[in-house]
Each structure stands twice: as structure tokens, then as C-alpha cells.
Amino acid sequence: MKISFYTLGCRTNQFETQAMEKLFAGNGFELVPWGGDADVFVVNSCTVTATADQKTRQQVRKIRREHPRAVIALCGCMAQKSEDGIKASLGVDVLGGNRDHAAFVRAVCDFCEGKTALDTGRESTGFVELPAGGLAERTRALLKIEDGCDYYCTYCAIPYARGHVRSADPEKAAAEAARLSAAGFGEIVVTGIEISAYGADIGYSGGLAGLTEKLTDAASPARVSLGSLRPTVVTEDFCRRLSAKPNFCRHFHLSIQSGSKGVLERMKRRYGPDDIRRAVELLNRWFDRPNITGDVICGFCGETEEEFAETEALVSELKLGGLHIFPYSRREGTAAARMPDSVEKSEKERRCAALARVSRKNYSDYLAAQVGKTFTVVFEHSKSSETIGGYTENYLYAETNSEKAADGDVKKVRIVSAGEDSLRCEPVE
Ligand code: SF4
């Protein structure tokens, strides 16, 4: 049977799709591109914004219209939050969730064999181990180490969709990192819903820093990079331990969300602007030329011009670039949904654009400062036949002429020039 996937949302969703692709392939399914002629279509949904919900519905309706006899299976965060009634309204055959993707795969296989699928993976269990590494990828592998979140930030629907924190077994995670490295992956990208909360639920005192030390040791020489981080996880101890690991990637994506004390309090982020300052100061002190990027929400409930100006000022002061900037999106069922969403849509967009200008300027200044420096690049794909590119150990995209490197090569390079969002490099070996 032929199967096809459509994935929305975050790296954790992408990891789960890659794992399901492997599990279905193990059951004899052939993977075909989305929209192609398949017997089974799987939509792995997201619910982080109202737009994500809408896109999920659109994709399912479209595929049902175009493939009336195909098996359609829906999983992921929007599915997890949905009632059974969505099956009839969208024409879904198997409704899963995001708790147990291995059970979901079995349920779809059962359905295809005409059996009634009882457990579709919507029930909460502990952390579910899934195979990492995907079918296609050969350079950078996602590795999920944690699921769920217990912070309940006022604007966020994720804890309601993903449930409580569940951490992977540290020994099993390290063994998987070693397997991925032995399989030829040049980098392991650690992902999860809130990786900063890693370990508390299983009594693992080492926390994220302890696990990352284990992963870097197990994966060496492959390098290890971390997904989004809560600023408060960046402590002196975190920096001292990880800066000692030569194959640890010095890219830090901080989910800061705002630079205003008042807004952070209304978001219930449990830290203030000074905690962000301290995290950035520590990273710059302990790591050589760290690339510090982040997430920011503009136009949160009641955000005044002055509060937005505080965010802009903090981003300028800390020279943060490469920011992912989102206009606040009201999510039903969250605490913020009961607050007045007072910032006009056009004003949210104006603030996002203003902050993006500061972020772009900081990022191109940072890139320009890398000219003449040397890095190690894991070359992975070409944007054109003339060039091949890949990421440095601090997550900067660098390209060279395609005859100078091949897919999967790990090469030392010197930066020869900088553009707005990428670099040109020359291999030095
Ligand atoms: S930390 Fe906050 S924003 Fe992040 S997933 Fe948890 S509730 Fe959502």
C-alpha cells in the first residue's frame, strides 16, 4: 500500500512524522509525496494558532474531495483536542492524537486490514520511544527527548493538547544518539515540547544539561544541537558543562516572548527581562561567538506602546537576531482568552514589522562579523546546481561551489563573505 504524509507545526511534529514513516515502511507501506496517488493519507496536525487548526481542516477536506475512497487518518495536537464527531464532519477514518504514535500506526494498519482499531494513540501514557532518523534524511537527525508541558503560559494551548511533561529515559536517548551517529548523521537536533523541563518527572537530577552532556559523549564526533530554550534554563552550571563539549553546537534559540516585565507577568512566563539579560550575558561569556536567536510575540493582551518599546529596546541592547516574531493569536480555552485582546490587528503587524527590522539588522551585523573566521559545516543540500550549503556549528547557513563539497560532507571552512541571512565559505581542508 502507498502512504503519504502532511505535517503541520513544530520540529516535534516533524520528528513524529519521520518516526511514523519508518514504522509504516516496516509494515510494508511505500512512502509517496503528498498529493500523489496513495491508498492512505495521514495529516499530522498542529493547534498552536487558530490558523493551524484551519489549515488542518482544509488539508483533510481537500484530500477527502480528491481521494474519496482513500483511507484518511488524522493525528497530532489538533486531533488530540478534537471530539470523535470530527471524523464525520471531515471524512476521517482513523482519529488519533499525539500521545502514542506507535499505537496510531498500528490502528491505521488494522483499519486497512478491515479490523476495528481500538487504541488510536489518544490515551496518555509515559514517554513513548519512537525511532529517530527518518527515511530520507542523512545529515541532521531530529531526536525527541521530552513531551508535554506544565507551565500553562496564559496565551498557550499546548499544555491542553500535549499533556503533562514526560521525559525520555536518558540511557535510551544516549543509545539512540550513538546509533544515529554510527548511521552517519553529522548532527543530532534535540527536540521536544518544553525541553527545559526535561527530567523532573523521572527524578533525573541532571536536567537538560546532564542529558545533553550524555548525548554529546554518545554521539561524538557527530555534533548535538538544542531546540528552543526557556531563558531560565541557561545557568552558570549549564554553560560551564556544555561549553566543555567540543561537539556541542553553540546556537541558542531562546523563547523570550517579550522584553517587557508587565507583559511577561501577564503571560505568566515566570521570568523577567533581567533573567533574559543574564542568560545572554552567560552565553556570551562561556561560548565563542554564540548565535543567539529567539521567539517573540507582539501585541499580547493589553501590550501598550511603552511595553512594546521595552521589547524593542531589549532586543537592540542584547543584539538578538534571527528572531521568529508572531502576532498574538487568541486561543480558545487559554487564560489569555478571557483577557481583552486590545491591540488592533494592523498594530500587531506594525509592531512585528518594526521588531523584524531590528532583528534583521542585528543578524546581518552578526553575520558580517564572521567573515574570515573558520567553522565546520555539515553540507546537506543545494539551492542550485552551482552551490551546496549547510549549517555551521552555531547554525549559520553557509554555501560554497557545488564541486567543492558533497551531501553529507563535514568540512572545515573559512567564511569569505556575508549576505543578509547566509554566508559564503571556502573549504580549508
Ligand atoms: S512553556 Fe509556555 S509557551 Fe511553551 S509550550 Fe509550555 S505553556 Fe506553551
Structure description:
This protein has 13 helices and 17 strands. The chain is globular. Helices cover 35% and strands 22% of the residues. The strands form four sheets. Strands 2-1-3-4-5 form a five-stranded parallel β-sheet, with helices on both faces. The chain is α/β, with parallel strands linked by helices and 429 residues long. Helix 12 links the parallel strand 11 (291-298) and strand 12. It has helices at residues 11-26, 50-66, 77-81, 86-90, 101-112, 158-162, 170-182, 207-219, 236-243, 261-266, 273-286, 305-317, 345-368; strands at 2-7, 30-31, 40-45, 71-76, 94-95, 140-147, 166-167, 187-192, 223-226, 251-257, 291-298, 323-327, 374-381, 387-391, 397-401, 410-418, 423-427. The site of iron/sulfur cluster (SF4) has 9 residues, from helix 6. Iron/sulfur cluster is lined by residues 149, 151-153, 156, 158-159, 193-194.
